[in-house]
Request: fold
Amino acid sequence: MTLPAIDPAGLFAVDGKSAVIVGATGAFGKVACVTLGRARARLTIAAGNAAELAALAGDLASQGIEATAIARRPNSEADCEAIVQSAVASWGGIDILVVASGMNDVSPIVDMAPERFAKVMQANVDGAWLMARAAGRRMIAQARGGKVVFTSSARGKLGHPAGYTAYCASKAAVDGMTKALGCEWGKHGITVNAIAPTVFRSPLTAWMFEDNEKANQVRAGFLARVPVGRLGEPEDLAGPLLFLCSRASDFHTGHVVYADGGYTAG
Reply:
């Protein structure tokens, strides 16, 4: 019997690849920086806050991670093109795009001004679309394939009673864009997928991990729907991300990968 020629280490290798991470200073953005950086990808990190971005670049450099920083958000065609050109100038092209930028604005719909809804959609949907457009043009021109990973959420699939109409709508749109681009770019060898976490440890959610009455009550209600019985940790996102950015996922495209402990399964 002839066994298949499978090299597990090679399947997940991204060393030497040029990876653009947009929204790099956010919780998931930092996970992407550390995961891909420690796997020896060459990073172009982008975010709107120049001071936070410089601090992140310094932290990465202290760990021997190569990174070029550009203080831009994916707000316009010009911003996105500048981010792509930074990667091209530094590393000769772009192989991986991770869009980790975005925002939420929690409000009952009856109290939410249309401008607030539009701002969430612009940050979560327009920015991802513009960034994918700019990076995709370069990937297609390079003719060597590529990997695009969007950031979705369990809320792209599920509703929420606490004023999430803008956020849920935006993440559902990201899911649809993931599927559409997966179909559109398959012929170019470019895979497009999304990671959809539920609550994981970050500066914004740290209070949920504390041991006090409020946190315990909220956590208990949440965990009642999580089969694995715990909240997420940053490393729970690292594995799916590396899979989606490496050759291991070459036959996976247009998928939303739920990193949620089974939250959306039940």
